[in-house]
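Model it.
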Amino acid sequence: MTRSLLSAGEFASLARTSKRTILWYDQLGLLKPVEIDPVTRYRYYQPQQILDYQVIFLLTKMRFTLAEIKKYLQKNQTLEQLFLLKKPQIEEEIKSLQKSLSDLEGYYHNLKENQTLVDPVVKKSKPFFIYYLEKQGPYAKIKDYALELKSYFKAIPQNAIYLTLFAKENYNPKSAKLTIGVIKNAEMTIKKENMQLVKTAQIPGYRALSHMHYGSGAMISLLWKELVKYRRLKGFKLNSSLPFSSLELYWLTSLNHPMNENEMIFELHLPINKA
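Modeled.
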C-alpha cells in the first residue's frame, strides 16, 4: 500500500460524507476501493475517487436512484445523455407535486368552509339511456367489469362515458350490487354474439349533489363518505324514488385510453329531493 491512498475514514472526511456511506457504496458496487488490506480488511481509496463520489452525490441530488447510477457507471454514458433521460421524469414529478399542493389547498378550503373534504354543487341531470351489465362484487373490480362491458362492443367511441350505479347507499366494498354501464350513443355497436348479455335502460332525470374529482380513483370511497356527510350537514334529503342510490360517472379514465392517473376525471352524483 502506498502512502497516497486514503482509508475509508479519511476518504469520507475529505469527501464530506460518512464512512458508513462510503462502505455502503462499496457494497452496492458504486465506489470500490483500489486496495483492501488482506489482514485488517481495511479499505483504501485513491484521492481522485473523491471526484467519483461527487458525481454520485450530484446524481442523487438530481433524484437518480442508486440503481440508475450504477447502470450509468457500468454503461459509461455521458452525463449529458443521462440528464436528457431524467428530465421528463423530473418534469412529471413536478407536475405531480403541483397537483398534490393544489389538492391540499382545495381540501383545506373545503374543510374550513364545509367541515368535509368536498364542495359539491346541486346539479340537474336529464334522462339518458345506458347499456349495462348487472354485477355483484367488490368495488375493486369495477374497472374489470367495465372492461368486460367494453369488450362486448364491436364499436365504441374513445370518449365513451362509463358509469356505475349503486343499489344501496351503505358502504359495502366486499360485495355490492352494481350496475356497470356506458351512456348510449349512435356510434356504439354491440357484437352480435353478445346481444343477450348487454342490457339497455333509461335513467330518469334527477337532481343530485355533484362532486368532481380530478386524479386517482383510489380515494373515491373516501369522497363518497364525505359527500354523504355534506348532505347530512346541509340537511338535504335523499331521493329514494330512483332505481339506484348513487352514481359514479367516469368522464376520463384508463377505460378510454392509457393515461396518467392524475389526469383522470370522475363525477359523483348523490340524488336528492327538491328543496
